[in-house]
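Example 3.2
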Amino acid sequence: MNVDALLEYAIWSFAVLAIGGGAAAAVASTWPRRQWLIVPAAGVVALVLLLGLFGLVPEPPFHALGVLAGLGLGVIGVAGGSPVVILILRAASANAVPGTHGGILVDGKGDTPPPRREILRGGATIGYLERAAVIGCILAGQPGGVAVLVAIKGLGRFSELENALARERFLIGSLASLLWAGACVAAVMIWW
């Protein structure tokens, strides 16, 4: 094994370890009050994207290393989107009260005093599935599937979007989730 091959193997081994650490941080960031752990995972994704932008990603010496890197970035994309969305929604909607089922509490209509009800329930689960589907569609070479996914999601939530706060959170959360998945699948495509 020559020096160049050894260097490529060392770079890829380090990259797989860093991506694995990012994937572990992304999974851990889904735990309550641990959203800040997404920062190292986001740093890994940003570094991969920068390396790819400048063409500094060598071919993997073993196919398995490329597969491991791609899988790790996929895990970051699916699991890491929830804390990203939570942090962005907190920054954008400081007055929104979270419900017990992952939705938001809004005032009811026409009653005195208006009862609170939870809308947009199940958003975290939908987000995981959405990001997995986005990554899968892009890797399968079917980017049009993303448009179908967005349309289905909008139609499925249409009845809950009568409230301005719900519309705002739905749009912000959906766009943040889709952008995160897009960045992560771009990183996967660079390394795979």
